[in-house]
Amino acid sequence: MEWVLKRVEQQTDHPYLNFYVFHYEVGQEREEMTYFVASRNEKENLRANTKDFSFPDGVIIIAIAEQPEPSVLVIEQFRPALNAFIIEFPAGLTDKGDADMKSTAIREAKEESGIALSDVEVFCPPSPTSTGLSDELCGVVIGRVDSLGATALEHFEDISTTFVPIKKLPELLSDPKKIIALNVRLCMLYLIEKYK
């Protein structure tokens, strides 16, 4: 089946996130279909237009401390869209000046969690996060915690941080009172397997 994007209507004008209506012609009958999309990108930079999947909107950071035992930095952050505190890894949006995912991760780890990160490797390249809703791409990096320092949180960010020993991740994952982001669950399962 062929999908042809005919036009995009921008429904909102906000500096951080906007709502778009995509108008497609679909199939041999060229049936008209509309699709609704939320995006951080400006209209001309929507991935449906650019087809550029090379640089993420944000980076998720798996920060590992090896001492006194292998542990991963976990944050608990209030997410207004869910009206709840969610278990996540440190993460942040890319800035125009960021050279790559690694530089975004190093900057965001320092700002959000107060950690100095080194030996940063790309764990997952820029990938779609919620294809039914948005054109957002996130990448995942893994790095070593060198030191702890002060955070530089925005006044509205409600974030607490803790190091969880990797051997205790199964217990955290099975806690029905904890809401854990999907990407974090998958990365935790990887860490459990890696550190067996």
Could you describe the 3D structure shown?
With 196 residues, the protein is α+β, with helices and mostly antiparallel strands. It has 2 domains: 48 residues, no CATH class; 137 residues, Nucleoside Triphosphate Pyrophosphohydrolase. Helices cover 18% and strands 43% of the residues. It has 4 helices and 10 strands. Strands 4, 5, 6, 7, 8, 9 and 10 form a 7-stranded mixed β-sheet that branches. The chain has a 3-stranded antiparallel β-sheet with strand order 1-2-3, with no helix packed on it. A hairpin with a 4-residue loop joins strand 5 and strand 6. The radius of gyration is 19 Å and the shape is elongated. The model has no long low-confidence stretch (mean pLDDT 92).
CATH fold type of the largest domain: Nucleoside Triphosphate Pyrophosphohydrolase
Overall spatial form: elongated
Low-confidence stretches: none
Structure annotation, total helices:
4
Number of domains: 2
Largest sheet descriptor: 7 strands, mixed
Residue share in β-strands: 35-45%
Keywords:
196 residues, alpha+beta, single chain, three-stranded antiparallel sheet
Outline the secondary-structure elements.
Layout: E1 3-10, E2 18-26, E3 31-39, H1 47-50, E4 58-65, E5 71-79, E6 84-88, E7 91-93, H2 101-113, E8 115-128, E9 137-148, E10 159-165, H3 169-173, H4 182-194
Parallel strand pairs: 4-9
Antiparallel strand pairs: 1-2, 2-3, 4-5, 4-7, 5-6, 5-10, 8-9
